[in-house]
Structures are given as structure tokens and as C-alpha cells.
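Collaborator request, handled under Task 6.
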Amino acid sequence: MPQITTVGSANLRATTLSLLDADAGPWASISMPVLRPWNERSTNRARLRTLLDAVRDSGPTAGLSAAETEALLAPAESLHSAREFWEGDLDGINLFLAPDTHTVFRLPFAPSAFSEVDAQMHVRPLWRHLEPDGTFYVLGLSAGGAALFRGSRYQIEHVPLPEGPTSLDDVLQFDDHIQSLRYHTKTPPGSGKRGRRSAIFYGHEDAGDKRYVKEGVLRFFRALDNQVRDVLDKRRTPPPLLLAGVEELRGLYRQVNKYQHLLDAAIEESVIEPESRDWDADELHDRAWGLIRPHFDDDRRTARDQFHANPDQTAANPGTSLLAATEGRVDTLFVAEAPLVWGRFDDDKHSVEIHSERARGDLEFLNAAAVRTLRSGGTVYVVDEHDVPEHGPVAALLRY
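C-alpha cells returned to the collaborator:
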């Protein structure tokens, strides 16, 4: 039985990237949509069988004997009888099978049907569903405290902050005066989402007390901003940050924020009961992704504009794109999902030879360029061929 990994997009991306460092091929890469329920859909079994047979047919060209191909596919064959694997929510599967690595993903989306055996794992059918990457953070601000969440297209999860204050009480616990000037809710029921009240300041009504409360909140938010940046600044690519909570708290946090990628957009309703720390994660995710998705589309458009504006720092054919990716020079790669471009690549001499048809020992250039771009920290967009700059199968924006 292969290693089975149940994933949302965050785990899927991290696990896939970790596999890219393993060169011990050959790799059988298989993806397929799943019709539910599995046991009542003979189409699923037939589709998996067809994909496995396609790998068998490709085995000799990839340099594998019949016995080696069967050994490579043995973990996939065991899935037919693994009833527990097919239970629950499942829209697709993806298999990466190498002699010493057998990884199977249960997917929250339906990939296109694909199978291939090659010297490197094929990520293009999978990666299309992960772009834009969609990694973002949400900082929830409520009267009960603060919470940081990491989100993606398919899920959101709580991220523990580094040790430090997470509520106003934590940072001002020895300030007797501030304890008498706490938050409370004196807005009428029904004024917030689903009848929730909005959290506001209370205490004495004079301006001096209000200023005192404000300064206390700002002190807390300065400490909180340091904790948030400790988490986000560790990312190779700075992720966008959204604020969630009532307008008063969001406005005060923006006054002290030093993170350069805090977005102007925000989740305007608290998605939380006043004085609570229990966030409605599902609703938080739905609202956040609706706001964040255009941001990632902007990144793609910006990269496309840079490609057209800097023709001297581009590559637009499979051979030169693969060479640049191997040298770590590709910042952003646009690659079409559908076509396969086979050829010979000499790693030592960095020479390429493209073939009109696959020959024994060939490497698929477009997938290899994607794998090597990801290895070097570049960005890969898998798109329809007409969406690739210059309308070819691949286009690369180079770092130098």
C-alpha cells in the first residue's frame, strides 16, 4: 500500500515541492478526476485501469523493462481494493510513483486525466489547480483577542503566534486603569452580522479616558505587529495580509502596522461573537478568498506585462526555457498544460535536442522546465496555450 496523504492545497503544495528534490526516477505520474461514490461508479475503475495501461505502454520508451514497470505501478494497483481510501469527500487523485517513493494525494478538486512515465515527476496537471498559489494570511482582531490564520484556495488554518501577548489583557494586565476601560457591546442587537453586536470601547465617557484606552490598544497592536511580522517575514515570497474585525480595531492596527504587504481590502464584519476568540473559520475563509483572489490575478498580469516590457530577459521556446530553468535564471514561467515536447538534455554540457516524436531516453521539456523553475524558487503558471505570452507552449521571464 502506498503512502496516502490527505491534503488541502497547503499540504499538497508543500509535499509536492519536497518531492521535486528527489531525482531518483523514473517517475510514474498519474492524475484523474473521481466520480462519486467510488463503489457505484465503474467509470472510475475503468479510467484508472486505462491510465495504468498507458504507463505500461510508455515503459519501454522510458527505458523500463516490463518487470520494472509493474513494480513501479504495484502501489497504484493496490488502490482498487482500498475501500477506506475512496470514502469521504474526494474529487480527484494524484499519484507520484518512483522506485523508492510512493505518494498518493486525495484531492479537493478534479484534475484532468493524465498519465506519463518520465525521468522527472510531472507536476503540470496538478500545478494548474494550485495557481494562483493563494497563500495568504488573515489577522483577526476582536475584543477577545487576536488570531492569525494561514489560508489558501481550499482551506484556512490557525497559525500560532510566537510567544507574546495575544490580547489587550495580556499586554496591560498590570494596568489597573485600563481594566476599568474595557471593551463592551452597547450597540443594539441586529446591527451586526446575523444579529451580532459590534464590539466598541466603553468606560467613562470623557475624552481623556477614551485617549487612554486608545493608547493601550495601540501598545498592544505594536507588540502584536512584531509577532505577525516574525511569522510572515520568514516566507520566501511575502504573502498578502488581510485584517478581519470591526472597523475601529482595524483602523487602530493600521496606524502601527509595519508589514508592507497589508492589503487595503478587509473583512469588514467580525465573523466572531463579541468578546470571543472563536472565529468562524469556514466563513472567514469564504470571505477572505473572495477578497484575495484578484490580488493573485494581479501578480500574473504583472509578470505578463514584465515579459512584454523586457524582451531581453525572456525565453520563449522549450529548449532555451529549460536551459534557463536548469541554471536557476527563471523568475516566472508560463507553461501550457496540454502539449508534450520531448527531447534530449545533457546536464553536463547544457545542450538540448528537440524531437518531433518521443525517443527512448527522452525528457519532456515543458514539465522539466516547470520542475526546475520551482526548485530554484521561481513561480510557475500553468495556463491554456493561448494564455502563454507569445502564444507558444512556454514563455519564461528571466532573473538575468
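The cover message to the collaborator said: "The first strand starts at residue 3 and ends at 6. The mean pLDDT is 83. Please let us know whether this matches your experimental observations."
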